[in-house]
């Protein structure tokens, strides 16, 4: 329950048990996706220091993430 509360589910104490498990899985998936994005950005950041194409990929990825690349 504290996992949900810590991730913005202020009414988690009122959720039925089945919904707690469902919401916890959704939060876990969202956090995993955020961590994966952070890892990709870190890799692109380091790579962009050594390679011009990687620097372009980094700029493109940031644009996609911020909505400027569409």
Molecular structure report:
With 70 residues, this protein is mostly helical. It has three helices and no strands. Helix 2 runs antiparallel to helix 3 (52-66).
First-to-last CA distance: 38 Å
Fraction in beta strands: under 5%
Structural class of the helices, strands and pairings?
Answer: mainly alpha
- Encode the helix/strand succession as letters: HHH
Helix content: over 70%
Radius of gyration from the alpha-carbon trace, in angstroms: 18 Å
Largest sheet: none
Rounded mean pLDDT is 91
Q: Regions with pLDDT < 50 over 5+ consecutive residues?
A: none
General shape:
elongated
Number of helices: 3
Quickly list its features.
70 residues, elongated
Question: In a nutshell, what does this entry contain?
Answer:
With 70 residues, this protein is an all-alpha fold. Helices cover 74% and strands 0% of the residues.
How would the blueprint of this fold be written?
Elements: H1 2-6, H2 17-48, H3 52-66
Helix pairs in contact: 2-3
């Amino acid at each position: 329950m504290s996992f949900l509360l810590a991730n913005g589910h202020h009414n988690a104490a009122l959720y039925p048990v089945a919904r707690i498990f469902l919401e916890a899985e959704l939060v876990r998936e969202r956090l995993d996706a955020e961590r994966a994005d952070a890892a990709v950005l870190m890799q692109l950041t380091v790579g962009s220091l050594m390679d011009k194409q990687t620097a372009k990929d980094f700029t493109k990825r940031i644009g996609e993430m911020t909505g400027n690349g569409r």
